[in-house]
Description:
Layout: H1 3-15, H2 18-25, H3 29-43, E1 48-50, E2 55-57, H4 59-86, E3 91-97, H5 102-116, E4 120-126, H6 129-137, E5 143-148, E6 155-170, E7 190-194, H7 199-211, E8 214-221, H8 224-232, E9 237-241, E10 255-259, E11 266-274, H9 280-292
Parallel strand pairs: 3-4, 3-5, 7-8, 7-9
Antiparallel strand pairs: 1-2, 5-11, 6-9, 6-10, 6-11
Helix pairs in contact: 1-2, 1-3, 1-4, 2-3
Amino acid sequence: xxxxxxxxxxxxxxxxxxxxxxxxxxxxxxxxxxxxxxxxxxxxxxxxxxxxxxxxxxxxxxxxxxxxxxxxxxxxxxxxxxxxxxxxxxxxxxxxxxxxxxxxxxxxxxxxxxxxxxxxxxxxxxxxxxxxxxxxxxxxxxxxxxxxxxxxxxxxxxxxxxxxxxxxxxxxxxxxxxxxxxxxxxxxxxxxxxxxxxxxxxxxxxxxxxxxxxxxxxxxxxxxxxxxxxxxxxxxxxxxxxxxxxxxxxxxxxxxxxxxxxxxxxxxxxxxxxxxxxxxxxxxxxxxxxxxxxxxxxx
Length: 299
């Protein structure tokens, strides 16, 4: 039995598909399948039910996969300990981000992080909050950047910056003529929002409720860019976080981005890591680089 076989088993348990599990582990499907067959022979039990149509874990397979997660987590902790004693800002780090942040924040932070930590290799992962938290818990990810607070005391938080919301309105909307708006300006207005599963949806709903606005239930977007396209069609408005507002806008842009006057509705952006991690000092250094960018003043 070796660690790679345990990684393959966990991948199959979570993907429920040999090809996807193989892609995730960067090996061929026959290699993954063969190694798992070898593991079954060594343990003397059937871990995975195979057929031409589906893959399913047996009860013992599920139990072994869960134990394998604990083993892999502890192995990762051992690597973190040794890394912290050699060069805490070198090696690999798996960073997870939420979809409403990753495409807009990463261009701002990657270059400064590379400059400050040239020996650190960042592996980037984008998932919704619930998946990120599960992967952090299972030590598949080391560090998260997402909207806070998160309803758990299992992890440690590091605040980074506050990100204001902006109104994105089509040119044919009367609010688009304003230089800035107040929450009361949204009273009785309909807003396009993201679909369930995005934490930004709940944050935007809170803003809408406090302003007396309501959601347009005819459509829910899968991404901020889809929301932006809907607004550009001239059929509705939405709220966008500041980093998603373009730095440069052409004169013929069909969307107007309007800031809120004080007090601005906003969301807290921060980092999460497992409590007691031996790399906590590294995370604090990464956080300081991001804080120095002063992204609260990005717009």
